[in-house]
Amino acid sequence: MSTILVVSGTGTEIGKTVVTAAVAAAARDRRVAVLKPAQTGLAPGEPGDAAEVARLAGSHVTAVELARFPEPLAPATAARRAGLAPVRPFEVAEAARKLATEHDLVLVEGAGGLLVRFDDEGSTLADAARLLSAPVLVVAPAGLGTLNATALTAEALRSRGLDCRGVVIGSMPAEPDLASRCNIEDLPVAAGAPLLGAVPAGAGALPGADFAAGAARWLAPELGGSWAPGRH
């Protein structure tokens, strides 16, 4: 039976795409699809986040993008300013379910944080996750300020009856500062869910083969890897 996992985050530019790619790479013995409901800030023809996941993770990944809006804004705002139809949660759910009929794992990567609006009615990635009854993997920064944002995201998930699968640090510094080191222990407390990995800073710049080879070391066994707190 196929698994659908929603990948969200506590904000933007925190490593959601590289974490999605790492999860996809760690599932290299499975048929994987990555679905990007709304890609913003790119012109037609430029490779988006879904294509980047496929580049990093390997040829077993199918990349799908539902909509693209040229300005680097929240999806609802970008769609409105472009005069284009927004993405609706039911469209995300329908696309994910269709992909699930042909793939073993479907990763739905959001844009920005969990409650960023998809449309002017206030629909969000959380609504799509609820339609899918899918767990949500939260991507968080390593350093100071991440505990509050992670706690708020986890609280938003719980208030909607959604399962927080765990937290992955999207960009772990090679030489973490005091806050980053302490957050290894404190993030699970803030989230009320396990810490399931830490992707090293700069991993997204690696060649695809090197990224795929390293992915399992960055993720916990629950995500197909061998990572454990203290090994980052």
Automatic annotation (TrEMBL):
Enzyme class: ligase
Domain of life (superkingdom): Bacteria
Organism from which the protein derives: Streptomyces rubiginosohelvolus
Residues where substrate binds: 40
Record-linked CDD domains: DTBS
Function per UniProt: Catalyzes a mechanistically unusual reaction, the ATP-dependent insertion of CO2 between the N7 and N8 nitrogen atoms of 7,8-diaminopelargonic acid (DAPA, also called 7,8-diammoniononanoate) to form a ureido ring.
Pathway the protein takes part in: Cofactor biosynthesis; biotin biosynthesis; biotin from 7,8-diaminononanoate: step 1/2
Annotated ATP binding sites: 13-18, 49, 109-112, 170-171
Catalysis: reaction(s): (7R,8S)-7,8-diammoniononanoate + CO2 + ATP = (4R,5S)-dethiobiotin + ADP + phosphate + 3 H(+)
Compartment(s) where it occurs, according to its Swiss-Prot or TrEMBL record: Cytoplasm
UniProt-listed Enzyme Commission number(s): 6.3.3.3
Protein name: ATP-dependent dethiobiotin synthetase BioD
Family: Belongs to the dethiobiotin synthetase family.
GO terms, molecular function: dethiobiotin synthase activity
Catalytic center residues: 36
Entry binding sites for Mg(2+): 17, 49, 109
Needed cofactors: Mg(2+)
Assembly mode: Homodimer.
Transmembrane segments: none
This protein's UniProt keywords: ATP-binding, Biotin biosynthesis, Cytoplasm, Ligase, Magnesium, Metal-binding, Nucleotide-binding
